[in-house]
């Protein structure tokens, strides 16, 4: 009985005491050319699309929080999970909900950037594009995210600088006429009564705009409960594949990761080795690696997985064409 007491006490510690660590490991992968829950992951409406084959899988990192001492030890001993201090994932001063909201916002931004990067690669012309509409605000119900603004009070605008220059000549309460194009709908005209904003003395329209390639059709990304910006590259490749003739990957199972900017630059991500392990387990034979992640990726290369280094969307497309023809590709 005396000997049993410390054993029971240790068992209670294992089961009840939580540790300040988060477990990171291989997460699920999703084929951006396929479907999830009956919906295409990348759905394009309003223009002709082309058949695709093979796989272009985006990869994720699984994350477990609120680990007990027993769970942490079990995951550590498995050799497949990485334990990191919780403060690295959930910084002090931020709640889990706040971090999750930031990750969701990053994911939404990656979807928008992926669309713009793909349209830019395909040479669609730039327009003053509405990124967000403040609601409530002067433009709510009149303009939508994705609209292209062509003119202000009859004066054409070709870029954000011209658009902002015209707005700076207005006053709060003034009515302005906006000529705009909307995806899958006829062009329209909106009359907007400008509001006030404490940061400026000219009229407040309540929209955020950017110079971005614009197309008259809609691109939707149908993945939920995924956070962070690292799906951008694979989303862009799926858009390019669906809007161009011929397959990018043929029968090859390609996976990858990487952020994408509006101008098509591929950026580094976290958890590269976990994502490579997830890709190989799913059946991938080729993995697209952001150039700045190459050193880490090459240090833990799963057998049977070819690492292809990419710095831009254009380079990634060229590498996939090279793979199909048997030519050399940049590697880590």
From TrEMBL:
Keywords: Hydrolase, Protease, Serine protease
GO BP terms in the entry: protein catabolic process; proteolysis
Gene3D superfamilies: 2.30.42.10, 3.30.230.10
EC code: 3.4.21.53
Active site (UniProt): 230, 275
Keyword Hydrolase on entry: yes
Listed Basic and acidic residues bias regions: 94-110
Similarity section: Belongs to the peptidase S16 family.
Protein name: endopeptidase La
Species whose genome carries this gene: Mycobacterium simulans
